Input
Amino acid sequence: MSLFEESLSPNRPGAPLAVRMRPRSVDEIVGQARALAPGSALRTLLQPGDSSVSVILWGPPGTGKTTLATLISSTSGRAFAELSAVTAGVKDVRDVIDQARERLELQGRGTVLFVDEVHRFSKSQQDALLPAVENGWVTLVAATTENPCFSVIAPLLSRSVIVTLEPLGDADIRTLVERAVADPRGLAGRVDVHDDAIDVLVRMSAGDARRALTALDAAALGSPGTIDVAAIEAAVMHVAVRYDKDGDQHYDVISAFIKSVRGSDPDAAVHYLARMIAAGEDPRFIARRLMILASEDIGMADPSVLPAAVAAAQAVAMIGMPEARIILAHVTIQAALAPKSNAVIIAIDAALDDVNRGRIGTVPAHLRDAHYPGAAGLGHGAGYVYPHDTPGGVAVQRYLPEELGDRDYYRPSDHGAEARWSDVLERLDELRGGGSSDAH
Output
């Protein structure tokens, strides 16, 4: 038995409850019905046979990735090897592959190679796995909490089947907790766990079986005989928020935050803000996103939001956490309640699109720089009307290049304060003696 297999053994002295309750067969696995459906690649690997299909198990912590890897090894009768992407280098990868190849050639016995946190492997480390997977020297079972489409190299993806593992549901967690309370491998019925205490465990676990069983284990040690809500809360002082600042949850939560503000739902926006704060997200990152949002999604509909977001970013940098949470919440709520308009981003992107397509034109002569010697002889500045010398401060003259006609990039919405700018533009068009075109 390898050191890794020994560490997973439920029979080793002092093994945590989560290890002792690790499923011994596919029938004991809870909550992954879709991944284990009849005929699926994972189900095939978990049956006796010679299947050498490699899989990438993608899912949040506590959904059974390590358990599935060990079961694949035990049901197939293959040797089990493990690499942790946190500690292994290219040499370690090659050594394990060489051993697997020798075992296959001399003993005719295949190897299940479990790579935990494969997203942490560098490109060169992942490249080193390719020959072994391609030639069937190992059956690769790679585990990752991040989207493999972004964190695993394309050649390895094309040689593997991605299996998505879902967070366990409340009913699944309850089943596992109740099993651990009664099972001889677990607490063996020695502890009376109140139903409301199980409810708290289920809620605190957030779909992570390991977290639920670890909390139950700690509560059992601290309160032998009976476990109530107080015992659970004493054992688990803080619920860890599932949030990887470099992974999918980072992008998913900030995306939900922005879309909630854009959708004018302050409650949802504050909820996602709280998740980021509780997980230790950099408050300066949140402040930067609010500044961008203030122009992209609100803009001229409420021009006060951008300076408020800038002030918040400055205050966050000066004050720091935990007080900065109040300032971030202030601007988040203001931005969520503000009228929305994307006219500003549409205007700049439409103008950039024209420029990138070559629709540039020549700067009108009267707008060109006339300050250098010889400029007047070229006609630069001739006929320019200084707006401050005209009634109302508006000079009627052409500003866009002739080639662009009457392009109107900025089209105000009728939301909030931006509605007044529609009236302003209409009056300006009347002054110039024309109307806006629909050129874009």
User: Anything to note?
Assistant: Residues 285 and 313 are 9 Å apart (CA to CA). The mean pLDDT is 83. DSSP finds 19 helices and seven strands in the chain. The chain has four domains: 32-164, 170-235, 248-337, 360-432.
